[in-house]
Amino acid sequence: MAETRVPVTVDGRRLSLSNLDKVLYPQDGFTKAEVLDYYSRIAPVLLPHLRGRPLTVKRYPNGVEGGFFFEKNAPAHRPSWVRTAKLPTPGSSKDREITEFAIVEDLASLVFFANLAALELHVPMWRVDDRGRALEPDTLVFDLDPGPPATIVECCRVARVLRELLAADGLTAYPKTSGSKGMQLYAPWDRGPDPSGYAKQIARHLAAEMPDQVVSVMTKKVRQGKVLIDWSQNNPAKTTVAPYSLRARATPTVSTPLTWAELEDCEHADELVFTSADVLARVEEHGDLFGPVAS
């Protein structure tokens, strides 16, 4: 079947969108057109969290039930106006010592990637400057991953304790769902090049204080029923799913910023599952709950 293309202009940039009726989330019948609509409408709060950050995307050309691939290198066929930065990637699985990353900072670039079925957007905890040079990390992250039968409910309990520890150190924490089964806690960071060392110290401390609830190591056999505090996401070579990114789950769930009241009140995991429609409504009501992280 011939590919259907639709020419559009986005903020003065010309794009050609393809196969808009293709279903990318079969369970909900959610199409590529709906993916594009979501990313276009969420862009005002999403783009500040992508600004200056080298982008890694997870592409699902045949939908969430088909194959996928990660893409770090900006596509060769990208428009000339998509910003890029060439950065060292030693130890790359593709044997690239240098990778040319896309830096998505405008609506047209975001739409370009959404049209590639780049459902998931992942970024590091650091930015590049105007010349494309890597800056020191500006964000601290703790990735809270529940080991079954633990769920996000247990993550909420751990996050509340983490919040107090960070506050005692003068750091303000902001929670979001991963859009999958866990959650992340972010804090603006201005304390030098090694948030990973700090995060590791905090995670190990909490694992020692709460051994029945928390682990700080990846070993699967010790994770059952506990929450892994993954401090290693602060490694500059790693990325975390961006706030407001879709996830490739059965339904179009989103990595969603939360209020602390929602963490206090959470009793069932399904209370913190939000779809694209839910998130658009939340932003209408609350604005960007993660705004201080992007500033």
From TrEMBL:
Transmembrane segments: none
EC main group: ligase
Pfam families: LigD_Prim-Pol
Enzyme Commission number(s) from the entry: 6.5.1.1
Sequence ranges assigned to domain DNA ligase D polymerase in this UniProt record: 31-290
Annotated InterPro entries: LigD_pol_dom, MtLigD_Pol-like, NHEJ_LigD
An annotated Gene Ontology molecular function: DNA ligase (ATP) activity
Annotated keywords: Ligase
NCBIfam families: ligD_pol (TIGR02778)
Protein name: Bifunctional non-homologous end joining protein LigD
